[in-house]
Model the fold of this input.
Amino acid sequence: MITLGNYLVVSGILFAIGFAGVMLRRNLIIILMSLELMLNAANLSLVAFSRFRVDSGGLPNYNAQVFVFFIITVAAAEVAVGLAIVVALYRTRQTTDVKNISTLKF
Amino acid sequence: MSPFLFWIFALLTLTFGAAVVINRNPVASALSLVVSFLGLAALFMSLNAYFIGIIQVLVYAGAVMVLFLFIVMLLDLRAEESRQINWLASAGGLAVALILLGQVFSVVSRFAIAHKPFPPLPRSTIDDVRSIGVALFGNYNLPFQIVGVLVLVATIGVVLLSKREPR
Done:
């Protein structure tokens, strides 16, 4: 029997994988991909909670799915701007390695 | 949804999610991300969220991944050469991720409703596109329009960022 906890654990593991990617990888593009994994982990738990809360009309709670829709939209805008910044950075510095981009580092 | 299918798709999502982080070649990472997103779309479908599942395939596995692959090939990134690894920083990052994972496990195991199965849906067909549309254009009309402005700002920002300055 699949419970709500199963989905939440899968979502948590996916978030941890994305988090480890952000912490461990040095390539900016891979860091952006890991950010996408973390956003999708949050989406999975939102949809699981949405399905869990069946209202009196016999339908899932759609507020959470509207929220997921907003997250997907914002994530798409974020990827577009992030990759444009990566391209602009590559044009001036010829690198996408975060170790070589430390001008703003304290 | 049978438990068998759930475990297959959960395993698919997590394995290829881990492959994104482990692969040294950015193209292999991007292609692993596609498979991970497809597994996630199947999990959304298993939760009766058909609209979100379709959007996941169209937006992520379609548009966002093409963008990633396009940029990787445009910049002509090769596989990272194995450089000196900073073991302290790597161990720290891994430790924080593992602590987070332990936290999630302990919270879920003590969370009473997490052990209940999903309540059955009384109807055989659900028109979730209509319900999401009603919620989006009714209750959430203002946030929806603000998101539209956000996408417009992102578009203008990308054009500005990728324009070359005249010398």
